[in-house]
Amino acid sequence: MDFGRHCTEIVAQTERLVRDVAGADLRAPVPSCPGWTLGALLRHIGGGHRWAEEVVRTRATAFLPDDRVRKVDGDDSGEAPAAWLVQGAAGLADALRAAGPDAALWTPFDYGTTAFWARRFANETLVHRADATLAAGTGFTVAADVAADAIDEWMELDALPQHFDITPRKRGLLGPGRTLAFEAADADAAWSVDLTGDVIAWRRGGARAAVTVRAPLTDLLLVVYRRRPPSAAEVTGDAALLDLWLDHVAFG
């Protein structure tokens, strides 16, 4: 997906989120975010949009304090703050569009432009919508191209070599014969991860691997993002390698 579509998805996923949680109890726990209530999750999402909007609008050249993202305590009585959530998403999308995809500003790692934030928050919002549906007990669906882009980004971010300096234990992933394949059962989409070299390598496309994970694309997305357990997919081969990879894959 391109920059414009990412901007559109930030708002679209938030609007779907609001519909998904309508009438839900904000005190409900979020299984995929231990210790958080649904209300806390929604405050995190809305705070994240507003934090990123400030980064983009001010063309921040260094990290901005993100208390509004991290400190999620609050009042869980009443209804979900639907208007507040959509306003935050729209504000971020508007700031991104006004800046364009190539504006220079602070980002993690070496991305350095607004295109990073458009993609990151499109997928951040998507996956947190999945978290919210788990808490609210509602179904989660996603368009195939949106799901595939989210997996692409997660693979790309996880393979960045800077992670080895940030989290030295991640080097424990590397070793001979360690290859993984992820296949969508209902779409023409597959991913391969190679851990046999000095860095993590990934690509689109299928391959023979030590362990293969096959599931409908939505389920595959949620397994990769650790929102569902491997048992939600068909796993063949070295299941322990998959568990090891899932234990190390993370961003943010």
Instruction: Give the fraction of residues assigned to helices.
Output: 40-55%
| Strand arrangement across the biggest beta sheet | 3-2-1-4-5
Number of β-strand runs? 5
- Per CATH, the superfamily of the largest domain is dinb family like domain
Shape: globular
Terminal Cα span:
22 Å
In the CATH hierarchy, the third-tier topology of the largest domain is known as Four Helix Bundle (Hemerythrin (Met), subunit A)
Number of helices: 9
The share of residues in extended strands comes to 5-15%
- The CATH first-level class of the largest domain comes to Mainly Alpha
Mean pLDDT across all residues, rounded? 96
Oligomer: single chain
Secondary-structure-based class equals: alpha+beta
Order of helices and strands: HHHHHHHEEEEHEH
How is the main sheet built?
Answer: 5 strands, mixed
Q: What is the fold's blueprint, element by element?
A:
Elements: H1 3-20, H2 38-57, H3 67-70, H4 82-99, H5 114-136, H6 144-158, H7 162-166, E1 179-184, E2 190-194, E3 201-204, E4 211-215, H8 217-224, E5 234-237, H9 239-248
Parallel strand pairs: 1-4
Antiparallel strand pairs: 1-2, 2-3, 4-5
GO cellular component, one term: plasma membrane
Protein name: Maleylpyruvate isomerase family mycothiol-dependent enzyme
Pfam families: MDMPI_C, MDMPI_N
Give a nutshell description of this structure.
This protein is an alpha+beta fold. The protein is built from nine helices and five strands.
Please give a structural write-up.
- The chain is of the alpha+beta class and 252 residues long.
- It has 2 domains: 3-140, Up-down Bundle (Four Helix Bundle (Hemerythrin (Met), subunit A)), CATH 1.20.120.450; 148-248, Nonspecific Lipid-transfer Protein, Chain A.
- Helix content is 48%, strand content 10%.
- It has 9 helices and 5 strands; from the N terminus they run αααααααββββαβα.
- The protein has helices spanning 3-20, 38-57, 67-70, 82-99, 114-136, 144-158, 162-166, 217-224, 239-248, and strands at 179-184, 190-194, 201-204, 211-215, 234-237.
- Strand 2 (190-194) and strand 3 form a beta hairpin.
- It is globular.
- 42% of the residues are buried.
- The model has no long low-confidence stretch (mean pLDDT 96).
